[in-house]
Amino acid sequence: MRSQIFALGLGLVIAQGGTALPVERAANVFFARATVNGRGPFWLTVDTGATLTVLDPSTVAALGLVARPSDMRLDVGIGAGATTVAMSDGAVIRVGGLSPFRPSPLHVIGVRDAEQALGHRIDGVLGHDFLGQHVVEFDYGVGTVTLHPTGAQRPQTIVPVRVRTGGNRLVVPAQLALSDGGTLDVRLLVDTGSSSGVSLNTPFAASHRLEARFPSAELSAAVGVNGMTVRAVMHVSGLSVGATDMGVTRVALSRATTGLSASTEFDGVIGAAVLRRFRVVIDYPRRRMALDPLPPE
Questions:
Q1: This prediction's pTM
Q2: Minimal CA–CA distance to 197: which of 125, 269, 289?
Q3: Please, which residues have CB within 8 angstroms of residue 185's CB and are 6 or more apart in sequence?
């Protein structure tokens, strides 16, 4: 726990009294050390892009929990095809000194395929149902994640974010500056669980003919739930969130026809490869966010 007061660059002042999570960081993604039903440690990504908390099937089996019959869903994961989703009950998750967390429902989804790409063990994901009652501070400069009580902060004029009702999507409005002088307003999912930079979903990229207008031979790959996807790369003049220049010059263009990268609920994703340049504070209850630029590396 900390005792000082931080004043963030966009006006969000936090009177300290929060709880620092026990975390490690790999590929710019934070992994929280946790116990489940008194056993562990298990490593769960701290993921603002996840709507609900998830455990890997192998973790559920090791705990002796029962996974109810699974379903195949097309709106989960980054790869092509359907993702197997099961449900379970009875998990009590403890992270650091926080009160026990009992996810209901607990989703059971295979997440360990991303271990090699991220360079860290993954037993599950802490999602919106865990984070959403807090003011969450991701300090990429010192490598910490701190949960603050909602009454301990006094927000002024900061970047508004929107949590989509039902889907629990944390979406921030941004403006993309194109290399031809044009601009596009985009709705970006803030995803601390993604090690990538900025990508645009297939429907948005197609509706603006971005691959045709800005042809490039450069490609990028992204790894996540349900596999890997290859994307075209578009060079841009910049990306701003509110008054903050995010330092973005390259944007990936999805070609996926299923999964999150094909969603129309939001236009794209901003991941940890960009967020790591800031101290990021997300005030979930008030649907606000602050970005405090870190010194250049």
A1: 0.87
A2: 269
A3: 173, 174, 175, 176
Handedness of CA 87, 125, 14, 10 (dihedral sign): negative
Q: How distant is the alpha carbon of residue 295 from its chain centre?
A: 23
Task: Give the rounded distance of the alpha carbon of 77 from its chain centre.
Answer: 13
Distance (Å, rounded) from C-alpha 21 to C-alpha 139?
A: 12
Contacts of 290 (CB under 8 A, 6+ apart): 8, 9, 10, 11, 12, 155, 158, 159, 280, 281, 283
What residue segments make up the domains of the chain, in order of their start? 5-151, 159-278+285-291
Predicted confidence (pLDDT) per residue in 2-45, tens digit: 323 333 333 444 445 689 999 999 999 999 999 999 999 999 99
Q: Is 119 exposed, middle or buried (0-12, 13-18, 19+ CB in 10 A)?
A: exposed
User: CA-CA distance, 1 to 14, in Å (whole number)?
Assistant: 13
Distances (CA, A) of 162 to 123, 165, 227, 282: 28, 9, 28, 11
Fold designation for 5-151: Cathepsin D, subunit A; domain 1 (2.40.70)
Q: Tell me if domain 5-151 and domain 159-278+285-291 are identical in fold.
A: yes
Gap between the Cα atoms of 1 and 74, Å rounded: 41
- For residues 173 and 159, what is the distance between their CA atoms, to the nearest angstrom? 9
User: Would you say 16 and 1 are in contact if contact means Cβ atoms under 8 Å apart?
Assistant: yes
What six digits make up the tokens of 254? 């999805």
| 83 HSE (CA, 13 A, CB side) | 25
- Fold entry, domain 159-278+285-291: Cathepsin D, subunit A; domain 1 (2.40.70)
Residues of the chain with pLDDT under 70: 1-17, 72-83, 151-167, 219-230
